[in-house]
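Same chain as my last thread, 834 residues:
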Amino acid sequence: MKAGRARAAVLAASIAAAACGGGPHVAPANRPWAGSGGTRPTAEGRPSLVVVSREGDPLGALAVAVTTDGLAADRGALVGVALAALVEARLAGSGIEATVTGGWDGWRLRALVGSAADAAHVIGATRAALLTPVVAEEPALAAVARKTAALARRPLPDRALIDVARCTGEAYGTGSDAAPIAAELESWRSAAHGLGRVAFAAAGESWLADATTQALASAPPWPRAAPVAALPWPPLDARAVVYDASGEIVPGAARVIVIARTSAPERTVGAAPALGDPNGPLATRLAALDAPGRVRSVVATSHADGGCLAATIDLDERDLGADAPARVATAAALARQETAVDIAEAAAPPDLGLSLATRAADPRDAAERAAWWSLAGHGPAAPGGDVRVTLTVGVAAARDAPGGSMPASAEAIRSEIDRASLAWHAPVVEVRTKVERGQGEAWVLLASTCGTLSETSVDAGIGAAVATAASVQAKAGAGEVGVEPFVAADGVGVLVHGPARSGESSEAHAHRLADVAARAFAADPLPSPPVARARTTLLARSASTDETAIGVLAAAVAPGHPSWVDPTGTTFALSTASDDAVAAKASAIREGPLRVAVLANVDGAQAAAAARAVDRWIARRPGEARGCTGASSSPAPRAGTYAVDLPAAAPPEVLIAVPVAPGDEDAPTDAAWIAAALDGPRGLLARSLGRAGGDSPVAPLARAWSATVLGLPRAPALVIRIEAPDTSLDAAVAQTRALLDRLRQGAIDETDRTRATEALTRAHMMGDVDPRARVIELWRGKAPRATPSLEQMRAFAAAALRDDALVIVAARPPRVDTHGRALTGREARVKSRD
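reply #2:
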């Protein structure tokens, strides 16, 4: 295997999932599959036989697996390597070509057979090779000495890595690799080669299964091997092991190895593919760190007392810098957390071993996997949880380090890991949940609570670009999940929703939705194509007739901060924003305060699962304080009249804004009730502009009108929109200004207040029919608005509806004379009066 590739050919491992460029790789596995039909009875006192039935192979395969767990533990892999060499040499002497490979905790044999007679011969010779005592003058001892010397030439880089080797099963020398004498080798053979430590497997057609069964059953009984004792669990409070990895990794770099043990091998094996996926959560979260980590390998193994998984992460020396201990610790704590969560949540089928064996393309792989898996067992669960995770960290001295010293002391790194672990365990996302049982879908809204606060005229809409690009990217891999950008002045983020899949648990359903939202908005980098699509979408919106006028209004109501009123941004800012600027904004959003709202459709556990899943994706640093940055206030609104030229076919319209003091908590509510009194087919605007309520034959001054409050929470303004023919637009504006002046003088009455209350109540109820509105309301967490009294409404009108405070934006096509010539400003005004 080439250097730098993830280690997939694991000597004593059961299954490996390696993340290295091409993605996960699966190697042999060992675990009994009760009730699957794979185990063949032989006879009392004979080893177990697992059969993998398959047709089409020109030759069948036999395999033998032997575990040496617990035998001469101080000699490491030497026991398995020496016994493998002994058996291979003995078989070669019998004319049998077989591959026998030793590892840290056992050895395995594989051979091809072409007939029932071949199978019987291999089984008989293998039995003899395993059970014949070792004598001093035996020729096979020369092969044992050669393999021992080869093992010594592959030393374990550091004694700190013994637990890693024990987990993965790889064969390394330990410094005590002197070839065993005959008596020592015999003690290992008699302890390992017997019932309880040996398993046979056959992969092929029925004749091979029958011949192997007959050969095992007709031979004499086997002796019983030494019992396998479970290894002790590491303590719950085990601190990281730190060693000098100079010579193993490049100078100044670091390596983090996460070792996870469980009592059930299916869980480590089931979690390995996701942990090793180069596009999976672990790789993605590591890549988002200040010092990005790269998943070098993920190796999951089964043992006689449970499962073990080792994930190796490399950190580049260029990224560590002077803050190496903290950055190494952040990556280590993240990897430990992700590994523990993935193993705890892994759902592997009980027949996983048979599944792994039947997937093999080569019958030798199939037989080997079946034999190894059949030796695995469930050990006793660890106190305090069934997943126990430890860390081993290697750091290499920098090239210019004095005396080749390590870049940081072991204690400094361990202390930083302790701090980083506390940070990863403390939730950083504000959570708001609600259960609505029986709904068809669950909803998750994740957004920054800073909204557009920090945006100015230069970058107005860049937060909208981040939210839109994140939703575009999420849609690509979201399947049936609905993904939408959430863009408002008080928050920008991603909204996801969808039904549960067939057979999916409610918590898994919520987890899946939350992963889509959090991964897109809080973790994955935003590549150029989604950013370009987002900018195109927002630019097209900003160039529309309505948005052109709104943009001018926003610049006047919130000078220097137009996105406080219009969060989707301006044409100028969006057209000049680069990909790097959008990426920088995304990074700033992710480092700031985030809030998630969950509408669960089953129970509270489902909502909690979504919240946990979201929080897991958020990068964090020990001791960090998350807060919004930006201007605390905007300059005073710029009252006046502004003209906007529209295309020739566009309908003329005017926007009239009444800025509301943002410091007055009641003012926005009062403004909303005034807007409701103005709005609607029976509202005050209808009476003034639509000639409602009388028998006058005079045509309406406007085609359409509306009133609402925009710019919450930082630059609120009551905004009236009027669409009218060009010939009556100025008159409609004059009539509206007169109406506002009458309201300022107290013209509003109880009938208007009652009608406004009814309209707002109805609008609120109709809006809440859409769960989208409900989850946004939950995210905002606003208390129901209290109905203002008539006196409050009149007081607001008297203070705010001043004619000299109005911002008026008149948007109309250029005016022309009878010859089609565009009129100047003065000519247009005269023409209007005419």
